[in-house]
Each structure stands twice: as C-alpha cells, then as structure tokens.
Amino acid sequence: MDQLGQPYQTIRWHVDPEQSVDTLSRNKDIHEAARMLREGKLVAFPTETVYGLGADAASQEAVSAIYTAKGRPSDNPLIIHIGEKEQLYTLAAEVPPAGEVLMRRFWPGPLTLILPHRGTLAPKVTAGLDTVGVRMPSHPVSLALLRVSGAPVAAPSANRSGKPSPTDADHVWHDLQGRIHGLVDGGPTGVGVESTVVDVTGEVPLLLRPGGITWEELQEAVGEVQVDPAIVQEGTAPRSPGMKYRHYAPQGEMWVVVGEGAAQIRRVQALADEARRQGKKVGIFSTEEHRAYYQADWVLPCGSRQDPASIARELYRGLRRFDQLGADTIVAEGFPPEGLFHSVMNRLSKAAEGRVVQA
C-alpha cells in the first residue's frame, strides 16, 4: 500500500528460468525490476529456495515497506541477498575462516552466513543486532536481477507473515498483489524450504536454521558445527531470521505424527477420524508410500520417503492447497530429524505450532 493506503498496481513479469544468467541480465523485464529496486520499490523474485520480497538494503524507507507489506514484526531481522561474492566484503566487518570455507563450498546456493556488519545497511535490516545474514542465491533469475540492480537486496520470503512460504509466483500474487510494486515470475522454485542459516562469528559455527544445505553437509565442509538449542527446544529464544514467530502455518489446525510404518499410519488415521467425528473437514498430508492407506476429506501427497528433496519441494505447496480446500484440521506424516528431513521437520513443527506426537 502507498502512503495514502491505496493498493499498488503490481506489475508481473514472466521470465524464462532456463536461460543463463548472462542472457537474463540483458532481459528488459529484469532491467525494469532492477530499476524499481534502485528506486526503493518492492519487487518479489524467485530464488532456488522460495520466492523473496526484495528491497534496497541501504534504504530505511524501502526496508520498512517490507515489514508493512508482509505484516512482519519489526524485531525480526532480514537476510541480505547479493549477486557477487565481492559485495560481501562491503557489508561484513570480517569473514572468519569458516565463513570463507562455506562460501567456497556452497555459494551460490541455499546458505546464509551470519557475520558482523559494517553499519552500512538500513538499521531495520538487522533489527538492532550487530550481525547480519547474507547469502548469494543460485537461481539464475535472482542472480541476474541482483547483478543488474548492483546493490545488496534485503529479501525475506514473499508471503504474508506467518503463512506458508511461497514456492510459486501464484502464491506471491495471492498474498501480496496490491501490496508490492513488482513480481518477477520465474516458475516454481527448486529446493522448496528456506536457506540454511549458520552463525560463523564464534569459535565453532552454529546452525541457527536448517534448510537447503544439511547439517551433515556443513560438518563435511568445516568439521564441527553446533546446533542452536532453539531448533530443538521449545521456549528457547531463536537467533535466526524466520525462527522467532509462528511460521509457515496453514489456516487449519495441524498435527504431525512421527514414527515408522504401520504405527505411524494408525496414529495419523486415528487423529483424522477423531477430527471428523467432531464435524471438521480433515486433510491428511501423506507420503506416496502411505497414501493408499488413508481416508479423509482430502489426502494429498507430499513426495516420496525415498526422495527427501521431493518432500521439501512439495511442503509449502501442499499446505497452501489445504488452505484453498478449506481444511479445518491437517494431519501430516513426520520424518526422522536427519539430512534434509531435519529441515522439513523443523518447518512442519513450526506450522503445527509444536503439535508433534509420537506414533
């Protein structure tokens, strides 16, 4: 909305995500979107994880507009996106050796590094912290846009705060049309969950948010990586963007059942049956392997247990689909907290507001 409370006329550009970064960097729509960013306007764009809502990270007014458009609490910091590694050194006061190793291994890609900043960013970006999260996405559309804009871009997920993150341009359009100036439509995203966030300011790197890069991959790169207690312990104050408030949540009440095989199937069905007896419309979020065993108003697939990446890709899409269908209760299968399933379970637990039960 503008200063008078009137909706913006949101422009939607369609670009081909199969083109190279060099080709996209000459695309007239990318240049128009980059011009808007330089002018302090809000532009949503695809990354390899989810769609981001971008604004000039040096402009306090532009960054403030992100919080307004999303309805995001002002004490929740933003992640900075850059198109060239060299930009990092204009933002960070220092990059510890572990950070350099992780950059070489995983950038461009779904990894955010927490680093001490130089104070050159809009104060609202960091929410008063002396550190900032920075990442270099690998999606060709976002890389082209960032390089053409020539400036660091603050970009949280392009959804209304608390809702499932957007993995398709239509999700952004549904949530933010009229609240932002532009949307670069580059099709569905690939990873489906947000970036991994690692604090490298201490002696040992600290995993603050699991995401597209797994804890195991981080340890393979730099050795020991500790895990923030807030990831596994309810009530502990988190230190990462996207972890402090109710997040990723569908409109219906959600339950997650962890376990294996027949026991998990029985508990999922029992919870669904109980909700239906109460007159609720019930959806079950099932893996392909178990889908035929369930009965509910809707049984939606979330991917295959043999392919964790497929479940990550379908997670937010499925939660949004249950909203469209009008599900009052959603019962989802859970997974062991390892590899990419660790990231999936983190998001499921947040979406269920901690309603996670053992089969």
UniProtKB/TrEMBL annotation:
**EC number in record:** 2.7.7.87
- A molecular function GO annotation: tRNA binding
Gene Ontology CC: cytoplasm
Name the PROSITE patterns for this protein: YRDC
Q: Which domain of life is it from?
A: Bacteria
Q: Does the keyword Membrane apply?
A: no
Q: Which residues bind L-threonine?
A: T49, H81, R135, A155, S195
Name the UniProt key words of this record, in alphabetical order: ATP-binding, Cytoplasm, Nucleotide-binding, Nucleotidyltransferase, Transferase, tRNA processing
- The UniProt record lists the keyword Aminoacyl-tRNA synthetase: no
Residues where ATP binds: R72, N76, T131, S157, S165, R209, Y248
Q: Which InterPro entries match?
A: DHBP_synth_RibB-like_a/b_dom, Sua5-like_dom, Sua5/YwlC_C, Sua5_C, T(6)A37_SUA5, TC-AMP_synthase_SUA5
What reaction is this protein's catalytic activity? L-threonine + hydrogencarbonate + ATP = L-threonylcarbamoyladenylate + diphosphate + H2O
Main location per UniProt?
cytoplasm
Q: What does this protein do?
A: Required for the formation of a threonylcarbamoyl group on adenosine at position 37 (t(6)A37) in tRNAs that read codons beginning with adenine.
Q: What is this protein called?
A: Threonylcarbamoyl-AMP synthase
> What lineage does UniProt assign to this protein's organism?
Bacteria, Bacillati, Bacillota, Bacilli, Bacillales
